[in-house]
Amino acid sequence: MSNTTLAAPETIHDEDAEELKVTFYPPLFLQRRIWILDVLRAENVTKVLDVGCGEGQLLAVLCQPAPWLAPPPPHILPVQAATDSSDPMPPSPTYNDEIPNIHTTHIMGLDVSPSDLAFAVQGTAPPQPEVNLNEGSDQYTPLLTNVGLRWEDLDVKIWKGGLEVVNEEFVDVECIVSTEVIEHLPPDIFPAFAPVLLGVYHPRLFLLTTPSFTFNARFTAPSASVAARRGYPDPTKRTDRVFRHSDHKFEWTAEEFREWCHSSAGGWGYEVQISSVGRALEIDEWGRDEELGGATSVAIFRRCEMENRERKGRETLRALGLKTTPHELLARHQHLAHPSAQKPKTLDEIGVTVKAKMEEFREGFMRVEDLWFERDIAVLCGGWIEILIRAVESCEFLVLKRDGEEMKGKRGNWRVELVGGISQPKDLRPMEGETSIDHIPWDWMPGEAGAESSEEEWSESTDMDGDVSWNDSEGEDDTEGADSIDWPQGAWGAVEGNISGEAKLGWGESGWTQSDLSDVPHSGNSTAGWDGDESDDTN
Q: Is residue 190 within 8 Å of residue 162, measured between CB atoms?
């Protein structure tokens, strides 16, 4: 019998053979969009071109009208000097926005996919004419009756074509956005990207996002084999990398992205600010979170002075010798402002209307924004909420409450007080033949402020701040961790009282899953892989 000792087989850990759980909240595609919108707000952008717009999700968001205009010029509403130097709040007309609105006036989208562009055309079209909301109509009356009112004209154009083709309408556009596009470009088109966008078009701002290959290590343990990584091998055979999507021609590491951005910015007269978005909810047990950064690399290019930039871009493009087909304009939508926009009535007329509205509602105090979202008040103000503020300040029977501990200096808490209160307050006692149920307001929701039930009784509030059941309600696939999304349990709880004694499942229970959204219409060629792309043809 041999004395040879056989070596024990090497133990294979589960994390070495499988991908790790990596989830994002909000979903990664929403984090990219939030980043873009934040930059547009901060930079007061009004004209946007989305290159590789796909189905137009960003364009549709930008088509939504701002709830009110930017502050009026002094000739409309003269600046009011402060009467009390100790007042911490600025005098009107500034409404003191914590989150500035985006006031887009021109939006353009470009893509090569006809099927995707069909959705972009539909999603950016003006809304249908308003339904009759008169008393007695069977149409639903929204709580905020001026939602959708537009105070500024908006021009939208949707184009079909490749980015390697110069469109003269894009030259000197204020801002170009390119989200999850550059990694899809074929090798012959990629060299035209910077010369066309940064050279010929030379926007004031250029916003770029692309998947970070560095972050991909987060999907596996450091000791995992290549086979543990699910994905798509580099189709160009230039590397042994595994990509997040089958159509990606490359995925840059964080360092490669940085090098390309600095080289392109220097060559075309831009300054660039580089960062990343999309951190995993789970904490990496190997402590790699800071090292790997976010799942998406992002960059802001800001134009500097440079001579002959446009001419250089056109010459570079001609030298590439690419075959070009002119862009085709698929649709032009014109969203017209309300006829009363920038045509306010007198302060006295507005103040009287506010008083009448508060008396109609039997309210001695109302938030400024609750009053604003009454259509007739917003129309009288011509779209300027500062006009409403000044009208309240000017009326002897109204008082603007914008200071004090409960206001905390935030304009969302500003309130209007009706001097003397309400002469005939609400009488909630039931009349003969009625019950208390008959007096429940039609728009009442459990858990809202003012409900008689305690906060503990309605601990699972269903107000908007707590509604996370539809966090992917736009119909966009984003499989970055989608398999492991933990839907909130008991958001409504079980519905009791059925004959069998078994509780019926309500919203938020495990009986309702994300798969129930399978019938939400969207383009059939969705490419929503780990990077959350929406269009196969985004180049």
A: no
- Tokens representing residue 238 in the block: 């230039």
Chain-wide mean pLDDT for the chain?
78
**Edge-to-edge order in the sheet of strand 205-211:** 270-277, 296-303, 205-211, 175-179, 47-51, 106-111, 154-160, 328-335
Cα 449 from chain centroid (whole Å): 27
Q: Which helix (H) or strand (E) holds 258?
A: helix 254-268
Q: Residues near 422 by Cβ (< 8 Å), separated by ≥ 6?
A: 358, 359, 362, 363, 364
Instruction: Assess contact for 417 and 399: CB atoms under 8 A.
Output: yes
- Domains of the chain plus CATH, in order, are 17-78+92-128+143-335 (3.40.50.150), 347-426 (1.10.10)
Strand order through the sheet with 365-367: 365-367, 415-418, 398-401
Residues near 15 by beta carbon (within 8 Å), at least 6 away in sequence: 220, 221, 224
Residue 77 C-alpha from the chain's centroid: 32
Q: CB neighbours (10 Å) of residue 150?
A: 18
How many other β-carbons are positioned within 10 Å of the β-carbon of residue 227? 10
Instruction: Determine whether 31 is exposed, middle or buried from the number of CB atoms within 10 Å of its CB (0-12, 13-18, 19+).
Output: buried
Closest by CA to 412, choosing from 375, 354, 368, is 368
Taking only the tens place, the pLDDT of each residue in 7-30 is 444 444 555 667 888 999 999 999
pLDDT digits (tens, 9 = 90+) for 478-498: 444 434 334 343 333 333 344
Between the two ends of the chain, the Cα-to-Cα distance in Å is 69
Q: What is the bridge-based pairing of β-strands 365-367 and 398-401?
A: unpaired
**Runs of H (alpha helix) within 27-144:** 28-42, 57-62, 114-123
Q: Which residue has the tokens 């951190």?
A: 279
- Provide the total of helices (H) and of strands (E) in the chain, helices listed first: 12, 13
Tell me the β-bridge partners of 110.
Answer: 51, 159
User: CB of 207 within 8 A of CB of 198?
Assistant: no
pLDDT of 115-174, one tens digit each? 999 999 999 999 876 555 555 555 554 545 667 789 999 999 999 999 999 999 999 999
Closest CA to 345 of 353, 337, 355, 357: 353
1, two tokens: 């019998």
